[in-house]
């Protein structure tokens, strides 16, 4: 049995389930599903860099948060319509991604990660100081508005389908990117950068491009979250969020296209359903993560794939070689 | 901790059961889904878990038990949730509670960001929310709602209580150590206004990032300012570290620190050695009178800690809400809101307290001085009353509130 | 004489305090640098071990009546043993993999430790008294320095220099460096590399715990005391140059001073300045200030 042969039926089931969710409000809370969808898009966008290009960014909160703040600010204070707000959030994040990417990709490995962390801390500082963000009180009461001027998004169900649609388009972009000639070059860069260079690919330009794309999609995810919750908060740009997305991606499996989506769902569920444990939440979350790193190193989806023995051989071994990429050079 | 687990599982099961009975079904007796459900939304696991946390849940449970566990024959149920100090998590939990779980009132709401976000949800869903541990006065101004009550204290009362009383007492030059957050800057500005109005001078301020551990640099700056009063506009770990540094660097005897928002737990944590002489504004002290002692000792038995003003506020506000429900004969939010604003609050927490149309609960505030170690005669004998500030003076005058409910809007 | 409106005396005072803070950074980043150098793992739990050190000192005093001096020795050893156990049980399963897995595992440890201590001791923290012998202040002319802060500088710098000497100038250090460069070859010479690695991790986290004990009387002992410290320490190590012991020490002290001056001139930025410095350094000197760049 192959995971690939399972992919189609599984995705059909998933899509049907997602479409049906609003009809069963007593089983699962809609706003929670919408929030999870935002993180699904965020994690899959992030994995364009980590899993598919081999670049670890430790500053993706800058893009997610920028999307949230820009969209929230425009919609709330300038009366910009919903669609334009989301788009603007994505664009600003993409621009920021281009700038940070251009600086960061001049280094590799840990150094690259640290540059992105540092830049995102500067971005955090900006939002902390900027008057429109309300610092720790957050940018509150962002109106949800209407979709295309017709559908009232104050209705959770309507908003849900719109969010589902936008996230689906975002995921399609991720999937198309991975399965395109462009994606193949990215993989070539990940596996052996010098060879990609010697083959004549403008590696730097490819990296900046994928950085921009990843940042833009992350920004859209953040913008959606701002609209759903009607607020943007400092946590969205905090480095903890950058850490969260790394976690989601690894838990789901960074060598898969949609593994991060599963990871995002796991993290969101842990956050949502562990409340009855009170103060023990943090400890339990830590133990779960620890168990995952030790037992499912390729992530939940990755391990599932391995169990079904279907995947292209030898990928995990290549992952194991990867530290050599950045670390042997200092 | 583990001993409490059964009640937690009970909370979980009650959530699960509640999922079946979605909201909106008003039974013939005037009570939605035949239960009055109170949700305590608090910081269970994070940096404010001592200030509210599990003890806040316990305070609300105590109020429900003391009330008799039911109102007009309808059972009262308490559930709780963790907002993790994230506005979105808090707002999402609040929505779910109102929409799916039939929660009638949400209490505690530590953390101003969370409180503002939940207030917005409460206003939209037309259900009750009461904040006891957040300070942001936006709750009774731009973000006010007929369903939102700000109960224990707010930034305005802190400024009035501490600032005005100290200036009148002769401490008229100030320097601020302010956390660079909306909370700190707002508090600094409010106290500065009060100080200037009362004829004092503000010599300057140092704004430090959140989570600063080392305050020695700021202690030096405060010393160099020559101000008589050093106002500490931060709370929790930041305030504790600031006070530690001021004490370590031996701020000269002519200088005196005033903590604008220090919790009773912070004093326990600092120890009297370091905290002695501090002036703090708290709406409640366990050892104030017979009533507060009686409550506090019962609270201590259940939680192992002395209640702070938020815990006492959680109890008192829950009791007030239930009294309003009883008086209204229904848990219909509008009727309850009306009764809450109509009934006076008289208990160990407040005397003659009342709720203004903008949701502000008005009651006396107190300025305390922390005792020296040799003055403390028994456990938790920490504070001495310096001044009582009447509710009318402590809280923002109604005419200054920007609340839209006040001009018929 | 003034500089930008601040009297030079006051600046001297700030310089001194900057060095005190820099001493903490130096000890912490030294530990992190050693661990990274040998294990190739970014020890995200470094701040948690710092907290663990302070708490162990507090608990030793509370339950066993151990005084500060005993704690200063015993707490780092206890924490080092715990760290070695963690390495031996879990961390070593991740060697040779992408360093991101080590990051994730140590991050999980942070959650467990911080969460656990919060459950056990609450979030607002515990006081820890300054040892009797080091109370009081000393007048330096330009400022009044608490004696304990002076002691912190001495203890930290001494510890850093001893550690540097052991690694760079002794035979144990030579083996360690050999194991870092060529693990298999070193093993072939009959040196127990896995043991060496475990010991290294112990020393690294022991240093963090040592800094924690030093910090206990100054900073409040609370479960999240190390959580915002981690990324700053990362930055220090990277600015100093990964793998450079001296780089970590010098950069730690230097950044303490830079941060101290920022507190005077643009206080709000003081927790962010280190990242600005890091971006600038990495763009100009890719391998950090003291790292050697190999092509």
From TrEMBL, chain A:
CDD domains from the UniProt entry: TM_PBP1_LivM_like
Designated name of the protein: Branched-chain amino acid ABC transporter permease
Localization (cell): Cell inner membrane
Pfam families reported in the protein's UniProt record: BPD_transp_2 (PF02653)
InterPro entries hit by this protein: ABC_transp_permease, LivM-like
Keywords: Cell membrane, Membrane, Transmembrane, Transmembrane helix
Keyword Repressor applies: no
Gene Ontology terms: cellular component: plasma membrane
Topology versus the membrane: Multi-pass membrane protein
A GO MF term: branched-chain amino acid transmembrane transporter activity
Entry's transmembrane regions: 30-50, 84-103, 110-127, 158-178, 208-233, 245-270, 277-296
Domain of life: Bacteria
Main location: membrane
From TrEMBL, chain B:
Signal found in the keyword field: yes
Highest taxon listed in the record's lineage: Bacteria
Signal peptide interval: 1-27
Matching SUPFAM superfamilies: Periplasmic binding protein-like I (SSF53822)
UniProt keyword annotations, A-Z: Signal
Keyword Signal belongs to the record: yes
Domain Leucine-binding protein span(s) in chain numbering: 36-371
Family: Belongs to the leucine-binding protein family.
This protein's name: ABC transporter substrate-binding protein
The organism of origin for this protein: Natronospirillum operosum
From TrEMBL, chain C:
Pfam families registered for this protein in UniProt: BPD_transp_2
GO molecular function (one): transmembrane transporter activity
Keywords: Amino-acid transport, Cell membrane, Membrane, Transmembrane, Transmembrane helix, Transport
Keyword Glycoprotein: no
Topology class, membrane: Multi-pass membrane protein
Gene Ontology biological process terms, A to Z: amino acid transport
Membrane-spanning segments: 15-38, 44-61, 68-88, 100-121, 142-167, 199-219, 231-258, 264-284
Localization per record: Cell inner membrane
Any single GO CC term annotated in Swiss-Prot or TrEMBL for this entry: plasma membrane
Keyword Transmembrane: yes
Signal peptide (UniProt feature, chain positions): none
Family: Belongs to the binding-protein-dependent transport system permease family. LivHM subfamily.
Name of this protein: Branched-chain amino acid ABC transporter permease
Organism: Natronospirillum operosum
